[in-house]
Amino acid sequence: MNTIQNQEDYFHLPLSKAELSPSPFAQFSTWFSQAKTKGELEPTAMTLATVDKNYIVSARMVLLKSFDENGFTFFTNYLSLKAKQLEQVPHASVVFWWPKCQRQVRISGAVALASDKESDTYFKQRTKESQIAAIVSKQSAVIANRQALIEKYEQMMKQDGELKRPDFWGGYVLKPNQFEFWQGREHRLHDRFLYSLNQDTWEIVQLSP
Ligand SMILES: Cc1cc2nc3c(=O)[nH]c(=O)nc-3n(C[C@H](O)[C@H](O)[C@H](O)COP(=O)(O)O)c2cc1C
After folding, report:
1. Residue 16: its pLDDT value, please?
2. Active-site hit among 106, 126, 188, 192
3. For the stretch 147-160, what's the b/e string if a residue is b when 16 or more beta carbons lie within 10 angstroms of its beta carbon?
4. Least C-beta-crowded within 10 Å: which of 17, 86, 91, 173?
5. CA 34, CA 181: separation in Å to the nearest integer?
């Protein structure tokens, strides 16, 4: 068996209830800005966990594209595995890991489709290459090899004019009912705070590491 040594000790500043924002969205916003300032490689990258009606769980990375009090938005293919799972069970959990800050944030809640307008707006902002990649890839379908994919891509690259968002591609919005903020501390005695939505109020408790 290979054993893995983690050489990092966690030395960062404490996180106390007094300095937490009453709003988990504001708290997330502060940590997200600090992750960017600290130069995290992919601060928007988050692991998205979904489940189907037979309790088969699946997790993968996606990129956070926007967030506000209405939810956390990411974009994907509506025929992918994650989309099929979300259709069956419209709940998910995402996890951010910002190693330079030694911080983890977990968020869970209900997931709904983003509006067509929101998906169109974001699709228009993408580069032509990214738009075509979204159009030509039947995400999560089995393919024999890359050849057909590349041919379709190159054919579309030759075409002029604006590309339309395909109806099988767009956004999802995760509307949080829980957030957990985790700050790495010395001796593995980390700080954890859980925000849970109770009616319209966010309640905050501290958890043992
Ligand atoms: C850092 C990173 C970011 C990614 N971002 C996205 C994304 O925003 N949307 C997406 O559909 N796939 C993204 N992917 C690919 C997914 O992890 C995954 O392979 C794909 O969405 C298919 O997942 P599924 O078969 O579970 O639906 C990303 C992968 C990595 C490593």
Report:
1. 86
2. 188
3. eeeeeebeebeeee
4. 17
5. 14
- Is 188 considered catalytic here? yes
DSSP H helices, 58-200, are 81-88, 116-125, 128-136, 147-157
Q: pLDDT tens digits, residue range 4-21?
A: 666 555 656 778 888 899
Over residues 179-205, the pLDDT tens digits come to: 999 999 888 889 999 999 999 999 999
What contacts 44, CB < 8 A, 6 or more positions away? 63, 64, 65
Question: Rounded CA gap, 82 and 85, in Å?
Answer: 5
Residue with CA closest to ligand 1 atom 6: 62
Residue 98: CB atoms within 10 A of its CB come to 21
Residue 29: Cβ-neighbour burial (10 angstroms; 0-12, 13-18, 19+): middle
Which residues, given as ranges, of the chain have pLDDT below 50? none
Number of alpha helices (DSSP H) and beta strands (DSSP E) in the chain: 5, 9
Q: Which domains are delineated in the chain?
A: 17-120+169-207 (2.30.110.10)
| Ligand 1 atom 4: residue of nearest CA | 62
Task: Quote the pLDDT of residue 187.
Answer: 84
* Confidence (pLDDT) at 7: 55
